[in-house]
Amino acid sequence: MKLRRILAPLALATALLTAAPAAMAADGAAGPIAPDRDVKTSEYTVVASYQNISAAALKTVTRAAQNDAYESLKHEHGTLGFYVVPDPEDSTRLVIAETFTNKRAYEAHQRGAFERAFRAVAARHGVSAPDYEIHDQSLVASTAGKTAYEKADNGGSVFTVVAEFDNVLPEWRNDFIQIAQADGYGSLTGEPGTLGFFFVPDSSDPTRFVFLETFTSLAAFVAHKNDTPAQAYLALVAKAGIVGPKFFVTNSDTGFTEPGGTSVPNQRG
User: Fold this and answer.
1) pTM (2 d.p.)
2) Does the domain made of 141-262 have the CATH classification 3.30.70.260?
3) 221 pLDDT exceeds 60?
4) Are 65 and 84 within 8 A, CB to CB?
């Protein structure tokens, strides 16, 4: 798996950041939840992980990320979706997946007060800088001129999967894109448990694609994997010699037994 590692410590940016508000404290009372926005368009998709979170800091860092999610969704028009996912296989790691209207909205979020407050908390606790899996524009789930979009999840907990596929050779690229978009359309329209389907070509590597998918539960993911749209997609993967899936949330490439994890609510703390 070709991870895009950004190894400079977050502490280098601490001087530019303000202290996180007291409401982010690990023992603070839980607050309201912000739902993801309902937007009918392709979305700029970002997936990153934060490493080396100590046991003592895990609750505080997670709550800070939840607060970032809540405030960003409430106050940033360009922030559309936010998923904070503890790695179920590694308690020192937190994966954050986000969607935005476009790259400009993502960059504005990165400069904004809520993201800076979260990173200040991470820096204070010695958390490693984000390890990016993808940040690029997704393609719309579509087939035969029809499109489908994500379903509302109300900002609560959802089963979140990030899957990478590599070695999509030029002669298979158009077929791969077409059948992946059809997979997304069939899943969103025919599977009650499939909530989100973001299909992202990597603009820096034309042989690499990343999927961010959200489900009501692990069982819903299993039903999706075994359903006709996904099976047709996986048949092309095997036929074309494409490498994958590699699951980023759990850093697993041993099949479908460890595909993802459940997000925490987008909650003000």
Assistant:
1) 0.88
2) no
3) yes
4) yes
> In this structure, are residues 158 and 83 in contact, taking their beta carbons and an 8 Å threshold?
yes
The DSSP H or E segment spanning 70 is helix 58-75
In three-state form (DSSP H/G/I as H, E/B as E, the rest C), the secondary structure along 129-150 is CCEEEEEEECECEEECCEEECC
> What's the chain's average pLDDT?
89
**Of the candidates 153, 161, 138, the residue with the CA atom closest to the CA atom of residue 225:** 161
* Angstrom distance (rounded) from CA 85 to CA 65: 10
Over the stretch 56-108, which tens digit does the pLDDT of each residue have? Answer: 999 999 999 999 999 999 999 999 999 999 999 999 999 999 999 999 999 99
CATH number of this structure's domain 43-136: 3.30.70.100
Q: Give whole-number Cα distances, 114 to 18, 64, 73, in Å.
A: 10, 9, 10
Question: Where does CATH 3.30.70.100 sit in the chain?
Answer: 43-136, 141-262
Q: What are residue 72's phi and psi, to 5 degrees?
A: -65, -45
How far apart (Å, rounded) are the C-alpha atoms in residues 257 and 260?
A: 9
